[in-house]
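step=encode ok
step=design start
structure_in=
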């Protein structure tokens, strides 16, 4: 029995439509994935840029000399604490110094990775918690600072008083790092002279 010739034109059109729809679906899914990855990458880059700008714009600098205050006595034998005046760099954003980490190290074995914050002193440049060879640091004086508390403003200065250990003797090299919560670390390195006076600049 002879079979009638079959016509596959209709089936060919249907298959083409199915293939076309499949391509469209796959292309749409691929485009969604690519666009999502692009959006995520751009958001990450934007966040990185904002963080970098915030870090770069929140930096401190030392203003003037660093002064060492020797322990009491006719012939001082060590530096009890130092006075460091800091200010924001040009165009910097305010920094909360109460959240700052202050560390100390010297070549005599003295080391403190996190000195305790002693608060804000009086305008005369004294701190209530800072005693001879204490492991405290504080804000001894605020100059032209508008904001209350420990926020360092633009065009303002703060005198930081950092207690040194008993190892801060003559001819000792020491380093103090000021690490604010936002911004770059401010390191200072000084050498205590061989002969001490009550108050002296350190270089």
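sequence_out=
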């Amino acid at each position: 029995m002879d079979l009638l010739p079959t016509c596959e034109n209709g089936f060919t059109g249907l298959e083409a439509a199915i293939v076309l729809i499949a391509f469209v679906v796959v292309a749409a899914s691929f485009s969604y994935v690519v666009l999502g990855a692009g959006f995520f990458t751009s958001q990450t880059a934007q966040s990185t840029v904002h963080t970098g700008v915030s870090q770069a714009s929140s930096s401190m600098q030392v203003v003037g000399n660093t002064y060492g205050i020797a322990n009491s006595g006719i012939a001082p034998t060590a530096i009890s604490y130092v006075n460091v005046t800091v200010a924001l760099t040009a165009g910097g954003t305010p920094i909360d110094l109460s959240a700052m980490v202050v560390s100390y190290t010297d070549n005599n074995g003295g080391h403190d990775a996190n000195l305790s914050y002693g608060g804000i002193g009086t305008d005369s440049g004294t701190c209530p918690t800072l005693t001879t060879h204490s492991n405290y640091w504080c804000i001894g004086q605020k100059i032209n600072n508008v904001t209350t508390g420990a926020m360092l403003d633009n065009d303002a200065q703060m005198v930081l008083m950092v207690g040194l250990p008993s190892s801060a003797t003559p001819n000792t090299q020491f380093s103090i790092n000021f690490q604010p919560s936002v911004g770059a670390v401010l390191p200072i390195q000084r050498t205590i002279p061989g002969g001490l006076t009550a108050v002296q600049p350190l270089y």
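step=design ok
step=annotate ok -> The longest strand covers residues 79-88.
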